[in-house]
Amino acid sequence: MSSDKLTIAIPSKGRLRQDTLDRFAKAGLIIEVPSDDRAYQTVLRGRNDVEIAFMSASEIANELAAGTVHMGVTGEDLAREKIADTDNTVDFDVKLGFGHADVVLAVPQAWVDVNTMADLDDVAAEYRARYGRRLRVATKYWQLTQGWFGDHGIGVYRIVESLGATEGAPAAGSADAIVDITSTGSTIRANHLKVLHDGVILPSQANLIAAKPAPWSPQTQALRAEVVSAFKA
Amino acid sequence: MLESLLQHLRRAAPDPVSVNILQPVDPFLETAGEEMRRRIFITADNGGRPLCLRPEFTIPICLSHMERNRTARYAYGGTVFRQQRAGHAEFRQAGLEDLGRKDSVQADADCVADLFAALAHLKLTNVTLVLGDQSLFGAVVEDLGLPTALADRLTRAFGKPDIIERMIGSMESDTPVAQPVTEAEKLAAAGERAKLIAHVEALMATASIAPKSGRAPAHIADRMIARQTEARFRLDADHAAMLRAYLALSCPLADAPALLSAFASTHGVNFGDGLTNFTKRIQALKSLDVHLDCMTYRASFGRNLDYYSGLLFDAYSGAINVAGGGRYDHLCTLLGSKSPVPAVGFSIQLDRVVEALKEEANR
To answer: Is the pTM of this model over 0.90?
Structure first.
């Protein structure tokens, strides 16, 4: 990274990539799409001082944490999950208005007596005595789950790492409840689960995020301000 | 410093115990919960069994004690490993565990006396102690006449003042009870237990959740029915004021029995054995020649872990928290002991002691 050029990482694949290109274009920032689909670097049209790097969304969160890119586009869920001490490490500069999804806590619909986190607290406390083990929560979102349970004073539960389809864990018997991301809730309902009334842990969307640990110079700070104001115009 | 302290502690706690640096992870997570996970260093052996660098000594000592099943006093000391936001991850810790002794009043007093002797051995002169009691809070909660679930919820939150205040607020507020809408709510409102169980079973079958894999349909139904009583329950202003007044109590330890008795008669609270034992414990401390004037009783002082059961304390030198401990009668049971094991102990943070000694030298 040279000190006078601003590097922005954007998603390399799928819907997120297209939405990002469209949203940037709407802000008057045209990303030159490389003729080779697998190319991972390009520029903004008419600008030689802004570099665009294509990466996977979760890689972008890691690069922001390390400060190896100045800015990046990724979901707030991934940023909060992957970047330690999030608010002191990155700035959420622009909410981009796409990639909407919520990280939610869901339990089986058969748990007719559980609608709130307070209910879940009661249930978690009885698990050990009644069933000889702690309540198990399947998730990919370890940090968000630990933070959320901690905020609600629930310490007696276990996280079960989920690598595949988290929403299937209760039926598979590998967990009792889940923390997962959902945009419409249809997958949750299809798996006979329900989101708790106060179970939205994080309403997430794609954000343009700035990395505090990046090697900022007066030039790159000015470029950052320029890019951010283009989105707000 | 560690070696000399260990020798000192072993005079009062001679039973031998050794704690490996590498420990199985599960006992820590099962007892201290997920909060522990972000603070420990986890690794695995070749067979994929998860291990961790010991984050503390108490749990491994309890596990090894449970195999022996008798009364014992153990001294321990060494490095513990904990992840922190910044700075060191290795800390030197030493302490004492008193396991299996039936006379809990005497065991508690001995434990506090041994802590003071150990801190004096380390040449700390200006030590103060903040002391609380989980069982007194339990007695106050019992006196409120709350539905069981609400009482349990409040007891679990002991040591988390903001969460307790939120709970008091919500019990006070007069939110109207919602009309039953769903099938389950209607069955619960009508007290149709058998039909409600069948309804839950049907929902489980639809979701292909095996009825034995987790919560039993009967438990779900019973809780659903009990919840109606909880929803209708309102904490009256007098009881709410009493609870808040109790949590605000703080005084020199020597004055605490009188203050608590006065509180009991003003508010009509029955502390029962809790206050008797509390008072006996203070007598026992006096006969051990421990100076009570550096000790403060604080009613709200607690730890948010479900294995603590009675006495709780933190020791300070100035503003530095150099040691802490308490009674944890539920821990061995959580670790799988078939019979309950009375337990009390303390741990001293040696790195903080070093820091405190420097501060004392500068004063």
So the answer is: no
